[in-house]
Specification:
There is one protein chain. With 594 residues, the protein is α/β, with parallel strands linked by helices. It has 3 domains: 201 residues, Phosphoenolpyruvate Carboxykinase, domain 1; 276 residues, Phosphoenolpyruvate Carboxykinase, domain 3; 76 residues, Phosphoenolpyruvate Carboxykinase, domain 2. Helix content is 29%, strand content 22%. The strands form 6 sheets. Strands 1, 4, 5, 6, 7, 8, 9, 10 and 11 form a 9-stranded mixed β-sheet that branches. Helix 12 packs across helix 17 and helix 16 runs antiparallel to helix 17. The longest helix is centred in the middle third of the chain and has 17 residues. Bound molecules: guanosine-5'-triphosphate, oxaloacetate ion and manganese (II) ion (MN). Its cofactor is Mn(2+). InterPro entries: PEP_carboxykin_GTP_CS, PEP_carboxykinase_C, PEP_carboxykinase_GTP, PEP_carboxykinase_GTP_C, PEP_carboxykinase_GTP_N, PEP_carboxykinase_N.
């Protein structure tokens, strides 16, 4: 990075770490901020930032009686989701980024970004945000520093990560951190790029203030950079929720599940058991709702942490009926982005049974003709401890042991409600072959089926061929790997309605999985995996016609032949980097279907 005139003396910096001082100094030289603020994460600092944003209109205070300490942020209308076409992985060799990523050479990317950053913070304050992804004392955690000119980003990073003084202390001890540079620039979509330099452990983001584009601890660090780091260090960084299921005997089993963006991770992580289950004593505990870092423990099991400290969740569709835990945690201390508001200044989104929006997400008077009041990708940011189902095990330094890994997508046809992989290699195939209909979480067409291996298509920081190989490598002597399953809550009938009730009732499917892990539930063997028979699932109290359940559990052979063929073609796209065991597994299943 080019360092020109440097306005701030480095002896004034609150750190002794030379590498950090030099980097901050060179960024300030390039971006020319008016002031530099090192974030300590304190309440006083946060209060000052909130006041500042209320004064500039970056935040709007919501109803203090119904939503104490809650704020609304309206983003630029052209800046409402992740931008996958402007997101690049800049490895020295293009093949290392793989066909799954957009690639730019590090030299070209640096030249482009340096030109955009030159003087971009003139008149602005540059915030230096040290953060830790994961419990601060966890050996699985990793640290980063985000430099940003957006106070909104600082306030969100404070909720989403362990940010401030303790993180800085760890960074100084380890002298190893991910360097994230972010500027909202002028929010011009033509001058917007999200660049990743995995070999340098660096991220550079310009021109967006939104979610995964700007809160660099989240998708950029905890998935793209971390997945690369994880491969080198023998662990996995995944787009997965982590949930604890406590049965009536008081035993808790942890499950990690990968679903693409806006496909139900937050909802499953905060599931409320159906009435009968609650009576019997079932409980559900939330460890994480979006990202999971895991590695084998000394006993051979996989242990997982949630690297995040908060939730950046989809607002529309969140209601007392679908996700009461999420709704309950949004009553205080939350930041809402791009939702509508009611006449008495309460946040509002589609799916809430009560309340009437008077302003839409752009601040216009609400008019149905303009579309929904809340943007379909409108979000809330809230601390994890606010969630009624939060478990203190989310702070366990060693992580929680996993009993099952679940893959899933949004598929209105073909894919059964649930099936179980025969073994780890088959499980990796099931994850790698995942496909889902696209959603509003990224810009672009919605509802198009695309392959989204392990829900990581937008997030793997390296070639998927190498990534599949890395997944396969966990199957080694002494490993006690979790069982792997695939679910689909989104099958539709000919009337276009969902066939499965979903939400809390998904516990019925999780119960079957955990019984399979314990060896006491039935299933039939099919070419695509083990599927429960209708009476292997507990459907007591459900209004689900037997014919619908049969439809949900059926294997359409002709449809699956076509699917396996498409999967084979998809793997072929990774050429010689496609692991041979995966290609063999695909061929074996294709053959057994014909
Ligand atoms: N039909 C049906 N819809 C669901 C179910 N679970 C979640 N949804 C809907 O799917 C949408 C997204 O759900 P989330 O739980 O926020 O998705 P997510 O995977 O956490 O999304 P990201 O934060 O983008 O990664 C919401 O509109 C939910 O209401 C389910 O079991 N059945
Ligand atoms: O990253 C974001 O903007 C939100 C998110 O969780 C996703 O899209 O998966
Ligand atoms: Mn996500």
């Amino acid at each position: 990075m080019r360092a020109s005139h440097f306005p701030f003396p480095s002896h004034a910096m609150p750190t002794q770490l030379a590498a950090l001082k030099q980097w901050v100094e060179s960024v300030a030289g390039l971006t020319q901020p008016q002031a530099i603020h090192w974030c300590d994460g304190s309440d006083a600092e946060n209060a000052k930032l909130i006041d500042l944003m209320l004064a500039t209109g970056d935040l709007i205070k919501l109803n203090e009686k119904t939503h104490p300490n809650c704020y609304l942020h309206r983003s630029s209308p052209s800046d409402v989701a992740r931008v996958e076409h402007l997101t690049f992985v800049c490895t020295s060799k293009e093949v290392d980024a793989g066909p799954n990523n957009h690639w730019m050479s590090p030299a070209d990317a640096h030249a482009k970004m340096d030109a955009l950053y030159a003087g971009c913070m003139r008149g602005r304050t540059m915030y230096v945000v040290p953060y830790c992804m994961g419990p601060i004392d966890s050996p699985l955690a990793r640290c980063g520093v985000e430099i940003t000119d957006s106070p909104y980003v600082v306030a969100n990073m404070r909720i989403m990560t362990r940010m401030g003084a303790p993180a800085l202390a760890r960074i100084e001890r380890e002298a190893n951190f991910v360097r994230g540079l972010h500027s909202i620039g002028d929010l011009n979509p033509d001058r917007r790029f999200i660049m990743h330099f995995p070999e340098e452990l660096a991220i550079q983001s310009f021109g967006s203030g939104y979610g995964g584009n700007a809160l660099l601890g989240k998708k950029c660090h905890a998935l793209r950079i971390a997945s690369y780091q994880a491969r080198n260090e023998g662990w996995l960084a995944e787009h997965m929720l982590i949930v604890g299921i406590e049965n009536p005997k008081g035993e808790t089993h942890y499950v990690a599940a990968a679903f693409p963006s806006a496909c139900g991770k937050t909802n499953l992580a905060m599931l409320i058991p159906p009435e009968g289950y609650r009576r019997d004593g079932w409980k559900v505990w939330t460890v994480g709702d979006d990202i999971c870092w895991m590695r084998p423990g000394s006993d051979g099991r996989l242990y997982a942490i949630n690297p995040e400290a908060g939730y950046f969740g989809v607002a529309p569709g969140t209601s007392a009926k679908t996700n009461p835990n999420a709704l309950a945690m949004l009553n205080k201390d939350a930041i809402f982005t791009n939702v509508g508001v009611t006449a008495d200044n309460q946040p509002w989104w589609e799916g809430l049974p009560e309340g009437v929006p008077v302003k839409d997400w752009q601040g216009r008077d609400y008019d149905k003709a303009n579309g929904p009041a809340a943007h379909p990708n409108s979000r809330f940011t809230v601390s994890a401890v606010n969630c009624p189902s939060y478990t203190a095990h989310a702070e366990d330094a060693q992580g929680v042991p996993l009993s099952a890994i679940v893959f899933g997508g949004r598929r209105e046809s073909l894919v059964p409600l649930v099936f179980e992989a025969r073994d780890w290699t088959h499980g990796v195939l099931v994850g790698a072959a995942m496909a889902s209909e696209t959603t509003a979480a990224a810009t672009g067409a919605v509802g198009v089926v695309r392959r989204d291996s392990m829900a990581m298509k937008p997030f793997a920081g390296y070639n998927f061929g190498d990534y599949f190989n890395h997944w396969l490598s966990f199957d080694k002597p002494g490993a006690k790997l979790p069982k792997v399953f695939h679910v689909n809550w989104f099958r539709k009938g000919s009337d276009g309605k969902f066939l499965w009730p979903g939400f809390g009732d998904n516990l019925r499917v999780l119960e079957w999985m955990l019984k399979r892990v314990g060896g006491d539930a039935g299933a039939v063997e099919t070419p695509i995996g083990h599927i429960p028979k209708a009476d292997d699932l507990n459907t007591a109290g459900l209004d689900l016609p037997a014919a619908v359940l049969d439809q949900l559990l059926a294997v359409d052979r002709a449809g699956w032949q076509a699917e396996m063929q498409a999967i084979g073609e998809y793997f072929a796209g990774y050429g010689e980097r496609t692991p041979a065991p995966l290609a063999a597994e695909q061929q074996r299943i294709a053959a057994s279907l014909s």
